[in-house]
Structures are given as structure tokens and as C-alpha cells.
Amino acid sequence: MTIQGWLLIAIFTSLLLLLAKPMGLWLFALYEGRRTPLHRILGPVEAGFYRLSGIDPAEEQGWRRYAVHMLIFNSMLLLFTYAVLRLQGGLPLNPLGYDGPSADLAFNTAISFAANTNWQSYGGESTLSNLSQMLGLTIQNFLSAATGISLAFALFRGFARREAKTLGNYWADMTRVTLYLLLPMCVVIAIFYVASGVPQTLAASVDVTTLEGAKQILALGPVASQEAIKLLGTNGGGFFNVNSAHPFENPTALTNLVQMLSILVVGAGLTWTFGKAVGNTRQGWAILAAMITIFLVGVTITYWQEAAGNPVLHHLGAMGGNMEGKETRFGIAQSALYAVVTTAASCGAVNAMHDSFTALGGLIPLFNMQLGEVVIGGVGAGIYGFLLFAILAIFVAGLMVGRTPEYVGKKIEAREVKLAVLAIAVLPLTILSFTAIASVTEAGLAGPLNHGPHGFSEILYAFTSAVANNGSAFAGLSANTPFYNGLLGIGMWIGRFFVIIPMLAIAGGLAAKKYTPETAGSFPTTGPIWTALLIGIILIVGGLTFLPSLALGPIADHFAMVHGQLF
Amino acid sequence: MAKTAQASANTSLFSADLMIPALGGAFRKLHPRALIRNPVMFTTAVIAALLTILLVIGQDGLSTGFKLQLILWLWLTVFFGTMAEALAEGRGKAQAASLRAAKAELTAKRLQGDSLIWENMPASALKLGDMLLVQTGDLIPADGEVVAGVATVNEAAITGESAPVIREAGGDRSAVTAGTRVISDEIRIRVTAGPGQGFIDRMIALVEGAERQKTPNEIALTLLLVGLTIIFLIAVGSIPAFASYAGGSIPVTILAALLITLIPTTIAALLSAIGIAGMDRLVRFNVLAKSGRAVEAAGDIDVLLLDKTGTITIGDRQATEFRAVGGHSAEQLAHAALLASLADETPEGRSIVLLAREIFGQTAEVPADAQIIGFTAQTRISGISYGRHTIQKGAVDSILRANPAVAETATATELRRITDEIARAGGTPLAVAKDGQLLGAIFLKDIVKAGIRERFGELRAMGIRTVMITGDNPLTAAAIAAEAGVDDFLAQATPEDKLDLIRKEQAGGRLVAMCGDGTNDAPALAQADVGVAMNTGTQAAREAGNMVDLDSDPTKLIEIVGIGKQLLMTRGALTTFSVANDVAKYFAIIPAMFVTLYPQLGVLNIMGLASPESAILSAIIFNALIILLLVPLALRGVTYRAMGAGQLLGRNILIYGLGGLIAPFIGIKLIDLAITSIALV
User: Does the active-site annotation cover B307?
Assistant: First the structure.
């Protein structure tokens, strides 16, 4: 571990904390439907959209309608993307003349992008046309991110409103988030990427002659624009197969820092927005404090493990940290930090191969996802997932201070507990049962590249990544088979929408409740005890559920490595 | 009843009187129909049954002795849970038995029409609305309302208090309870509760737990426990597949052991015992809650409405000043008041004697020929007559009525002016007349109870706002409120004002508790989230409230809140403890389970447990024994101190969270040492 490495982590964390409030303020304006400076230019566009589609943005929706409209919209998008992918061969903007992907791959990919997962069973540059990348995937990148933020807004309204029947208007939320937040920010970031050397062209490739005189074809495309939303929307689906490890996606240390910041900035901002929405910004800071604490512990472990390297190789004389699967232009600290950032959020972009991390270094990204990606988390999904844990934490805490638990003025009762448990259980149930299926079926066992506990980690990582809507790959797993495409696709859909429905039901129930004013007898959810309790609940629930599987995967892997055995 | 209740409270929890019936009860509760009410324990029982069957038919390479012990401990886990519930109920049953004795064989004298002719009949045949005659020495046969007469009644059978109380027609003391005894005079009552519906019947049902329904928080907690159970079912259920990937298999017995240690059996086993014990604590405190929901709501109270008299101030006022009228000196007034109060044993009377001595150094003996004029409800005057003199003392209106000759004089006007002044200053005037001459008035002042200020301080720390309700004018009320340290007051309160205040607070999202005794309190009692009716109160009040205080002590509200909070805290603390325990259990079982697959996982055996079998057995034994060890805590409740919620949480997390994390590491290690040293595995 180096001073520079720690400095990078410190600077990154400070920048993130500095950005949380301004980002939160902007999001709060959108949450409230207030005018922003951008309205002067984009206001007419927004109004035009509503006129065109016959939507009254002021028409409020109850949680059921909000959920139904959201589901219908996402299902339509799913079908649209599936069609675009399958028909790719006959559609324009296909300079390399790729055929459409197989049915199972198209199914997997369409769900993957609709569910904000961006699991990629294919290599982008060798499978998809520019039209598919732009029309199928980039649009989904925007809309799935906007859906996540809109859903978070709906939950915020549940906490903030009193004796109300409605949670806002899904279409208005979607339009505002896309138009006033995602698009403008992406334009700025994309221009920065282009300036840093990321290609943005409709040309397919260039032929170059290398220094040795060999001919090489370099794939190109509209990379910068997809890159911007890939990270800002915590989508993670790269233009190229190796994702942000590719020099055209992430050329410099500076782009790397901007990428990491753009992964977490919206999620961090939403914690502030939540605090503001419920009338006390300290509520938001308490949540962010819990998230950042778990995050930093994860970063420390991964960085330490990666920097410590592999004792087996040390015996062979290869000293130093673990550089396998990492880019030399980033090195250990930037790769370790990136890995934790991308799995803390449900992004899944990678700038190094997680499969090649040391066992415990790779355990943290895996565990981050198993916690439900609530450590800042995906845009919207992170905060609403976190608030589900907060409901459980406040329930236990409330009982311990002798009151019916209440959080930000809303009583947490049987209905909330039931639905929160239901939503939280979706993740472990799906991940564990699907991993179990894959580890006993022939089709499943055909996937992993390695044997032993490391091979098991590869399977576990794939299902964890899919169900948690992360999309990062551990590599090593050959996932482009009907079995994996199908099962992972179903997992992604369950992991996204089976959490959302109970979450919205909670929001609807909370909105209808009376406001209970805080007294000295109610437990303050702004201080360090609360933060510590949140961390405890998240780690214990996540840890207890996944410990057996982790023991058979990365932990067995690690102790084998200590004993000199590698997989 | 309370006497026996106290006695049972003092008997040890594990005494033979309670244990033996509880054992029987614990076995009866093993019936699947009873068990299914508790899903976690039901799961445990199903697993235990499954393993018992597998023991007979299955072969999995584990030694039979080990499996036998494991299954035994699984069954014990279930049994300890039912045992805890049976023990909690047992204490209530003992109380119910003594209540039944009070109720046995009551006979009634039923009146026919308006006449005074009655027929004897068993109380069980009485119907609602029957008119009864109860005479000196009779036990009151049914709950009812006094419609005619005044009587003193010994209610020791209900309250444990042997001092008789007055029950009279009209007013706020008209309710009588079956099983209590009339010790003087006779009354006519109208039956207000049908057979089996009376107050004692309800008490019996309550303390026996027959009517126990799950409270809202209990339901929410049960859902959480069920959710955890389902998650752990999948976590354990997926292990065989993972093990098969690793090229091995895990015996079902071991998987079952892991599952049982992970699901929250500790809290699930104790959950209903905690609830029963909470009600029981109230009963022993001489408060009857009509539902568990009310007890739970007590813990949530934000605003406490307290009547001034008897709650904040001592019901008895103290004399503080003599105000003479009509040219008499204060000294003359004091002397007359002194003589009139010599035989007055009420605290007010004694305070007059004291004040006369303090101010004027006066002392006096009761003259030899003196005749004491006793206070009667009719005259409302007391006093003394000796020689040719008569001294009267009483409410101003009563004195003036008794001396019509002076009622219209200037002196009377002066007296009225002075008494108005006293009233405005928050006092109660008491007029004194000697031989038909008005002497003046005694200033009786409200005395705030000692220590009440600190109690309100505690309540404030708990986050509860206190509001004093008084009929006094706002000035007096403000003075007393400031002295007592209440947060707010409602002066010149009418019953409607009270009701409005409660509604207003509730509209603001706050939960309100109050106590009351009069019929006009009934609407407010019904509206309040926790309404404590005084047992001395009217039937209407007792019906409207969701709790009845048998001692009729309004300050008890403060303790009731504490008991409600304690109930919730006990549940929360044991849940935290239960879940925190899982960490250590994992460290016992995971290495034991997987060491055959990956020997390197042996390093996770940080407790250094002797063998995989001993590790698994130790975890299971710990899991069962901890239930037994925590029964006293569940029944007693965790210690509650009035402090801010943050502090309280910090403290409980430290004890039950951190304690729950560490304790099983030590416990499992000790059990492992024990069972290996006696070669059980």
C-alpha cells in the first residue's frame, strides 16, 4: 500500500462528500417539480412531451398506479430492445454487418439493460451494431436510471407526505429526471471524455500499423456518449468487452477518477435529497455516513489484500502486489477503489478483472452486492434499498427504547415490517437458489473456467451480480449459453422488480399515515448510534445470509492460498 | 386478591407450586394446533419430528448416540418455549384461583318492581337490569350501579385495600363490584353486567391469558421473525447443492442443526411469555388492562393528562392563613377555628390546629362538656359546642345557609369578598362562625406532592409532556403548574374541554393518556389512547377506560407508562440478543460442517471446539439452554430507567447486542468443554 494510494482514496471520498449536497439540491428541485435554471431552455421540450403523450404532470398517482405505469413502461422498453437486437442484421448503422444475437442472448441483454443491470454475456464490439448500442442500450441506460431515481422520489414522498393517497406522477418524474439531470450531465461528461481521447464516431474501426509493422483493427464507435450514462446511471454496460479497462473507454487516471465519481454522485446526492424531503438534512447525512463507513472498510480490505499480493507467487520470487488482471495505467489502488465503487453502486463497470483479484480482495465486491448494493448504491435503487434496511433497523431500535418504532415521523408497523422483509428477502432467496441450481446441473457446471472454490465463486458472483442488478462480471464464467442467459435474465428481472413492488407498497402505506412528532422519547435517527445500528443491521443480515456460500467460495479459496494451493 | 397476588409475586419463579402445573401446561402446548401460533417454534418442532423419523429409517454415517442427543435437545428447545409460556400463565392462574374464590356462591336478593319484597336467587341467574337489595353484611352479587342509598363497602377482595369505601347513588361513586361486601347501611343496585361478563370474570380471563390476542407490535415482530426464518431456510437449503459442487455431501441432521441455531428461536420461544408477563406486572400493580394493546400503547404515550387534585397536589389542603371579618381579630378567628378543629382528624383539620399554634401560639384542650358536631354530607358543616357556645366550620355557602340571620349582612358580603380572593389565589376558603356570628375564613392551600416535580422531570426525559387539568382559574392553575413543574395546564376545564384537548393532541399525531373517575370523564376516557379509570369511579368511567386502577391512584399512570415501555424493550432486547447470537453459532457450525470438504476452513474454528460433533452439539445445547436462562428476564422485563431514547438505545445495544455477540462464544466453548470431558461425543 502506498501513500499515493491512500491519498487517492481520501481525495475521492472528500470529493464525493463535497458533491453530495449540490447534487442533492438539484435532485430536490426535480423531486419537488420546481423550476431550475435549465427550464428556460428545456421547459418547452418538457411541455411538448406532455402535450404529445397527453400526460398531465400534475395528476397524482397512488402507489398501485405508479407501480403499474412503471411496470408497463419497462415491459414495453424490454420488448422494444429485444426487437431491435434480434432484427439488428436488417437495420441500418451496422457497419460491420453483425447478425442479430440469439434469442436467449437477446432476452438476457434486453432484461439486463431494462433492469439497470447491464450484465453482458457478449462482447459489445464484436456482437452489436451501432444502432443496437445507441437505440437499444443507451436509451435503456437513461430510462432505467431515470426509473430508479423516480422510484426513490416516490418512496421519499411516502415518508414526507402526511395522510396522502398519492406518490407523485411516474411520467413527470421520469421526464424531469431525464431532461434536467441525466441528459445535461451526460453531455458535459461526454465532452470531457472526448477531450480526454475517448472516441465518439459512427465509423466502425480504423486500421493501424503498429510499431512492429503488424496490421491491427481498432474498433471504434459512439463510445463517449455511452460511457457518460453508463457510469452516471450506474448501468455499467461498456461499449467494449473489457469495459472501462479498455483505453478507449477509460484512457487516463483523470477519466478514471471522473468515472468513479459519476458512479456514486447521484446516489450520494439522493441521501441529501431524502433528508431535505423529510425536513431534516441530518437524516440524510446519517445515512450517507453509514454508507461511507461500510464503503471505506471495504476499500481498505480490498486495497490491503490486493497490495499484499499472493503469497504463493511471493515464494516463487514474484514479489509485490497482485497485478494480475489490472491495467498498468491504473495500478492497484485505482483498480481496488474502482472495484469497490462499482459494486457499492449497482454499476458493474470494471477497470480490472475481478476474477483475478485475491480471494478476499474479490470477496468485498461480492459481499457489497450481496448486501443489496445499499452502500450508496445504484441511482435510486441504492437509497430505496437502504431505506428498507432502515425500516428493519428502526423497528428493532424502536422496540429497544420502549416505543412503537417510528422513522422520520412515520410509525413503522406490521405492514411495513412485512413488506420490508419481503423486499429484502428477494435478493438472498434468488441468488442462493439460482446458484444452487447452477451448482448441481450439468449446464450450470459447464460455465466456470476454474475448478474448486474459485469456480464456485465465479457462479456465485454471476448470480449475485445479476440479481443485485450490478452487472459486473467476475470473468472466468462462460455465460453466453441458453442456461445462463435464461437464468441470469430471470434473476435480473426478479432482483429489480420484485423489490420495487413491495417498496412502493410501503411508500403508499407510509404516505397515508399521520405524522408523529418527534419527542425526547423517540429515538433520534440522526446521530452516531443510529449510523452504527444501520451498519450493524446491514452487515448482520447480509453476513448471516451469505456466510455459508462465502465460506465455500472466496473464504475457502483464501485459506487454500494461504496454504499454498491456488485454483 | 392483591394480597395473594403479592404473595405469588414474592414466591420464586421456579417454585414447586408454579413449576408442577406449568410442566403439565408445557406438554399440552406441544399440540400442533397450539404450536402453529408461533411459526418459528413450529418450524423447530417440525424439524425435530423429521429428524426423529430419519433416525429410525435413515443412514448418514453419523453415530446414533450423537443424533439421539441432538434430537433430544431439539425437542427440549421446543419444550422450553412452551414451558416459558406456561410459567408466565401459571402466575396468572394462581391469581385467577383466588379471584374465583371471591366470586363463588354469591346469592342475590332480587327486588320485585318498586316494592321492597325480594326473592333470594343465585347470582348466576341474574339478568342485566335486575334491581337488587344489598344489606349490611351481604356480598354484592353482581356488578351494578347504586340507584338508592349510601353504604360503606369493603372492596378488599378486589383491591386488597381493607379500608372501606363509600358507595352512593348518583355522583361519581356509584359503581359496585361483585364479590365486595357491604359493611354498613343498605343500597339498592341495578345490575349492569350479565353473568360471566362482570368485572371479576374479566379479571379472571385477563390474568389467565384466555383472551390474549397478539398486540400490533407483537404481530410485526412475529412477521420479522418469520421473515428471518424463511431467509435462513433458503440459506441452509442451498448448502447441499453447494456441497455437491465441492464434491461432498452434508448429512441432513447437521443441516437441521444449523437451521435451528440460526432461526430466532430464543425470542420466538419467549415472545408470548413476555406479553403475558407484561399484563401480569400490571395486575400485580393493581391495574387491570382490558387488552394487551392498551399496555403497548402506554409505552407510546406522548402526552399525559393529569387531574390536579389527588394527583399533582395532595387531595388534602393545608391551612395557611386566617382572614377575619366583621371587626373580629385574626386571633379570635384562629382560636375558634382551633376549637372547632380539635376533634377533626382530617389532614385539613389538623393543619388548622397546627397553624393556630404556629401563628398565635394557641393551644387548647377539648372542653369537658364539649359536644362534637360531626361532618355530614347533608349539613356539610363540622364544629363543636361547649357551654353556651357553638362553633361551626364549613364551606361558605353551607355556613351562610346554617345561619340565615347573618346571610344578608354586610359582614356576609365582606366574607364573600374575602372568600373570592382566596379562590382567586388558588386556595379553598373555609368559613367559621361562632354563635351565629361570622368570624372569617381560613385559607386552605393546595400542597404540591413531594417528589412530583422529579417525576415530571423523569417523564420529560422520557419524552412525555404532562398537562395538568384543573377546575381552578387560570391564575391559580398557572401558579400550581409552575410549582409542580408540569409542562402545560388546562384551567377551568370542563369535560368537553378535556375531550377537545385530547382530540387536538391526537390530531397532531400524539398518543394521549389520562385518568378519570366521573361519568362525565367517560367520553374523554374512551377517546384517550390509554384511559385509566379509577376503581372508585362510576360504572360508565370503568367501561370507557381501557385500564382500571384498583387502588384509584392517579399517579400510577407514570408507572403504567414505564411498564408499557418495559414490555416493548424486553421484546426488542431479546430479539437483538437472539440475532446477535447467530454469529457465534456460525463460527461453531460452519467449520464443523465444511471441514470435510475443505480442510483449510478448520481455521474458522476460532473457539477451538473439540470435534465437529461436539461443536454442533454445543451450539444446539446453548441454543436450548439460553431460552431457559432468559425466562426470568422475559418474565421480569429488562430494567427500565427514565432516560433519553438515545442513551437507552446505546445502553441496550451494549448489553443485548454486544452481549449477544460475545456470550455464545463463551457459552458454546464451556458446553463443548463439559460434553467432551464427560465423553458425550
Answer: yes
